Amino acid sequence: MKSYNIAVIPGDGTGPEVIREGMKVLDAVSARLGIKYNFKYHDFGGARYLRTGEVLPDGAIGELKKYDAIYLGAIGHPDVKPGILEKGILLRLRFELDQYINLRPVTLYPGVECPLKNKNPEDIDFVVVRENTEGLYAGAGGVLKKGTPDEVAVQESINTRKGVERCIRFAFEYCRKRDKRKKLTLCGKTNVLTFAFDLWERTFYEVAKEYPDIKVDYAHVDATTMWFVKNPEWFDVIVTDNMFGDIITDLGAMIQGGMGIAAGGNINPEGVSMFEPIGGSAPKYTGMNVVNPLAAICAAGMMLEQLGEDKAGKLIEKAVIEVTGKHLKSLAAGKMGYSTTEVGDLVVKFISELSVD
Ligand code: IPM
Ligand code: MN
After folding, report:
1. Full DSSP string of 97-150
2. Which ligand lies nearest the alpha carbon of 266?
3. What range defines the domain where residue 334 resides?
4. Percentage of residues in the chain with pLDDT exceeding 90?
């Protein structure tokens, strides 16, 4: 029997509530398909920081490198200044574990209310491949004369040939494996960011020569947001830099029904990857058993797929579709018609009933 070592970081706010449901679902998959896990909890997050003054303890990165995958709830605490936990935990893990891809599927599931008029599940089914370790997030730049009228703040976007190329290659491979419309769109800003996106564009068309089966396309980032709303059916796989990827994936989450369902993977294809619901810690709902655990459950499905357990990933997705299609009144916290734990129970029930293919 296959067995995986998984580091679990429930984190802050509603993170632990949704991770609990995700693990229930993972256990149900285990019973069904005979996959075994060894879970090990880590208490990184705002509460630990407030208690110890330490964001990530020494040795945490080395420890996390030993696992097959990381399952993360949410990082963010109302009593901690913005930036400390995001940079000190989430971004640090992405960078130091070299999780250079942020994979964000945007799928409208049956039964989910879409804010776009006349758009159906067949129209909204694409994946954003966001570069996850460079660009404006690299932290290059600095500040001079802080707090004076002459203050200067510089924040530079770092784009390396190696970083851009490995991200673009991943996107082409992913598009081929996904085998849907076989279309890859580069999302950039070549008309203004003429250094950074020139590198992206040249690399994109060079690598494209190795993938004659994939149609290629280009869209500026501003236009991309317009097409997400107007013609989302045009997209299959989109590749973009870190900052643009951050922005367009929040819009993507909204058109697929909201943060309650949006999951993401921070992927190092050669190392340890980390999977998370992208909605954040939602402090105002903490402990109320009302938030939607489907995003965390979908993240667990992505984790199994990344581990090579495609059947298990598909089974989770099928179960989620049963729940959105036949049960939930809404995906929004407090409006589902079910509690957080009840939604987890429903997914578990379908996992035990549905056929595995
Ligand atoms: C995301 C989040 C993070 C990001 C924040 C919390 C640092 O918005 O995963 O998209 O900007 O990458
Ligand atoms: Mn974001």
Report:
1. TT--EEEEEEE--TTPPPSSTT--TTT-EEEEEEE-SSEEEEEEEEEESTTSTT
2. 1
3. 1-100+271-357
4. 98
